[in-house]
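Retro notes, item 3 of 5
We never archived the inputs for the iron/sulfur cluster complex last cycle. Fixing that now. Sequence and ligand:
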Amino acid sequence: MVALAAKEIKLQSNAIYLMLPLELYRKLLFFYGRQNWWPVTEKGKTIPTYRSRKRLTETQKFEIAIGAILAQNTNWKNVEKAIVNLNRAKMLSCKKIARAKQQKLAGLILLSGYFNQKAKKIILFAKYLEKNYSCRIEKLFEKPFGELRMELLSLNGIGPETADSIILFAAGKPVFVIDAYTARIAKRFFPGFLKASRKASASKSLYEEAQIFFESQLPSDLEIFREFHALIVEHAKRFCRKAPLCKECFLNNICQFFLGGKNEENPYLRGIV
Ligand code: SF4
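Structure as it came back at the time:
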């Protein structure tokens, strides 16, 4: 249950937060506006563009899945260059990638980094789709969430972040994606969440812990999950960098990291966390 007006919330342990994830989402949305992730290529174009709620074509869903694999360990600008090259070479289709030579594909996606590994991964993914779904990615996406996630995770080169990005942005099923930016902001903004979830289960990974935390605090809403993820990425690039620009950040009056974290002088946290 989400109590919107609460300024403090008590979770499973004694951790108390100055604000809820949903309030953070609203503040980010108000400041940055809608991000409309994931950018996709319109018919006849080569550069992916951001779009609002229009329906995605099957080709665009496949493009997002390939983009999610290309996005591993790099930023979107580099992924975009690789997608543009694939579009220009008219290679961004399941059948073409399934039959492509690894070396040729690696040359096209060079700018996304780890190009040999990524070429191998996207060929394997396309071959899997061709063999099991006749290249119909929508057939794969018809599966219930749990089954779909397990199937994606069983594929070589697809980990939790990539699987969840594909499920959220291409399959259109609500799951909260945790990337390095989200983990960073969660640790700074909600420093008690790790402590709280570790008490609940010592066997979970940071990814699972952060995902459980956000999903337990937000309504299971596709648009909110998509936008929140994109807004977190934007905030992590603009202010909440590895070396954060806290003094300029519009959230510094409610951020536990800036207010002192576990510092005993912090009036909100003294004796609580
Ligand atoms: S105040 Fe600093 S740590 Fe907190 S959200 Fe802003 S940049 Fe990040």
